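Lecture 7, part B: from sequences to assemblies.

Below are the input chains for today's worked example.
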Amino acid sequence: MSDYETVIGLETHAELNTKTKIFCGCKNEFGSEANSNVCPVCLGLPGALPVLNEKVVEYAVKMGLALNCTINSVSALARKNYFYPDLPKAYQISQSYLPLCVNGYVEFLYNGSISRVRINRIHIEEDAGKLVHSENGEDKTYIDFNRCGVPLIEIVSEPDIHSSGEAVAYLKTLKSILRYLDICDCKMQEGSIRCDVNVSHNRKGGPLGTRCEMKNVNSFSAVGRAIEFEIKRQKQLLADGSSIVQQTRRWDDIMGRSFVMRTKENADDYRYFQEPDIPPFEVSKQKIEELSALIPQLPNIKIIRYVTELGISVKDAEFIADNIELSAFFDECVVSARHRPKSYCDWIMGELVKYLNSHSISFGQTRLTVGGLNDMLDAIANGIISNSAAKKVFEVLLEDQKSVDEIINELGLAQLNDISQLEVIAEQVLSSNEKSVQDYKSGKTNALGYLVGQCMKVSNGKADPVRMKEILLSYLML
Amino acid sequence: MQLYEMTLHQLSEMLADKLISSKELTQSVLERIQSLDSKLNAFITVDSNGALKQAESVDNKRLKGDSLCVIAGIPIGLKDNICLKNMRTTCGSKMLENYISPYNATVAQKLLAADAVIVGKLNMDEFAMGSSTENSYFGVTRNPYDITKVAGGSSGGCAAAVSCGEVIAALGSDTGGSVRQPASFCGVVGLKPTYGSVSRYGLVAFASSLDQIGPVCKCVKDTAIMYSAIVGGDKLDMTSQNKEYPNFEVGQKDLKGLRIGLPVDMYENITEPDVLERFENAIRLLEKNGARIRRISIAETGYALPAYYVISSAEASSNLARFDGVRYGFRAQNIQSIDELFVKTRSQGFGDECKRRIMLGTSVLSEGYYDEYYSKAVKAAKMMTHNVKQLFESVDIIATPTCAETAFDIGKKVDDPVKMYNSDIFTVLANLTGVPAISVPCGCAGNGLPVGIQLMADSFCEQTLFDAAYWLESLVNAPERGCEDV
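Predicted structure of the full complex, as structure tokens:
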């Protein structure tokens, strides 16, 4: 069986977080009272006509640019015709022949190397309503049309993915990019990202095999499980000498398996044709340039840079890059170049994240500055404060706009470096701990640690532990 | 002369001079409806109380000295596919028998804002599919000139009602000739405006890329007034064109130098010699008064009718898909599953012609047929648009008869859809190419039925149409209105 190669392609739907819907002025809002955000247009009432929301085009173009797509200069909408009770016009306004964005790619770190998945297209379309099946035993289904006309982008990948893990990594990458661009809420539980999965197998180097599509895959972990199930199912069929039949399957995450929805013979014919109510539209070069300028460096690129150029661990890189504020702060620190990237990363991943978590706040709510962190790291490097004292300084830096010097002074955290003062402490500790001195002299070297500890205690933690130890040793050697 | 017999512009002046009140005028048309409509069946819904109340309110405004629009106080009818709040919008279908729109169409809003009196909703072929108003769930509309004949379609109610004074003017919709052909059959003027010059918002769609709302009036001047009242871009309709539209007028320009093209190779389609005779007579009058006539040939017009039926049916199959019994309108009873709800509702709710076109449209969009039919039809339409555009560089007007024949007997063509479709042979070109076209009466045939002449101009050149049509109207003896003894 090992001579078969798994090939996966994903169609990812993301709800755009524009203020209003794609073809009318209704609020685009999750969780409102059923059928409260509706009007003749999104209800598909006779005579109502769609008016394209320009923001939707802008958001989709942004995603296209983020995924290195070509933006079609002329783009058109199309009707996808099918009957379903949640689809009030009995057609979905989508795109077919002239999608907004084509021929892109996305790169991300997976298993220690860079994966590149080509993007076939990104198009805009409207979402459908939601069927609510009655749960109290009555034989009824209700329809909530609030979601009708919520703008979606569909991101269609080429079949460039080869494992469930890579598929999930690809999806996480899309999600983090959507968040960076601030065009999608990315709340999986609210269905703001949904996914159809295509899986096929072919002999290495051979033509693509027959694919099966899985629908209703509603979380990233479910994507992983659905793909694993499908790989196993197809490999088993191939091992048995059977052939794969083109199917659309429905994933049941509770059962942990998929079921046939329909086969190729009774596949839907959506009878696409150009939407006559909306003329084809142009996205000008100037508009593309304007939008292009708004796109920050994206998390997938950051992760690759952090790992390959800055020597940050994959785990830390992913964590920092996933958080727009943290990674912006980290990037600024790295640009300042006053300390090694690893030092910044350690403080961010350690004390900073601990603080944010325990206070349930975001980085933007703290008062930490690049200068402040650098000054604090300087103070450590110069031996002015100890690492443990630095943690106290750091906490103040997060909460107050004070200079590091001020904080050290106010808290009296400056390390005791003055030899004569350290000698006074050493003499005091040695004279009151005769037994430990004897122990050390008789070979119990552990006693030294105890004595250093006593010195730190006497100095209220301010003594420079390294120097303190040297001085103690010089006395003990006498 | 009775008030209902007069033209809109005459009545408008009398109202302005306070010689009559809108209430009197409205009462006059309501009485006319009362006495005639049981025979003609031009109306689906009449709102007497609403109309009288509106008329009184306009009269009060006038008494207060408010400055009012030209159409203020004028009783107007709307084809029953134009949405109007608080009155049902049936589209001539069982499917929407009791459907009341929660919003007003943009054109209805414009009429209301101009203080027009909306009398009621007019009969039509179901969802505007047909050329005789025989496809209405509410029964056929009869021709005021001869009640054994059809009034034409699909805006048959509009044409019949205007022709016999049941309303002073009406708004219809024209997808392939649905305003012009019935206007021609009933001896009135009908305009299919440039695609995009009038908002379609609130017009229940038949074929979105071809549909256009247009006025049906008693004379060209009235038509220019009504067109001025509804023209204009609309933020709610992306296919409408936002540009400066003039106030359209007539009588400002004579015929001298007007270049009229005659596509003579299309005449072979004319089935009644009298129609050709009346048409040629009208052209001679135009020529005598200064128009320059030349023979032209419009390439590819042989494809116009098939292309029209492919494109319009394809769009209709999609536009009519929403009538599924789920949310509003007719719903079949005793159903067990959602698929059964769809199938039974649509089987029972639509008439035969709608079903025919839905099936035709579904088929031409289907995998394997799309390239063969739909995409070829779209290409043909584009070619014709290009050809017509070029022609309008050398002529100002293209003239044809509106129809190949005069109004035919009720029932004559119902069993032969292709014959019925041929009724649109001269009119579909304007829809496929988007250009404006007007039908003006040019006398009666030997059988006493009116003949119409169609004038087409380049896109957004309605003023040219009005100028030419106005002279034509004054040169040709208007057909005697035949509805007095109906």
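Note for the exam: Chain A has a mean pLDDT of 93. Keep this in mind when comparing with the next example.
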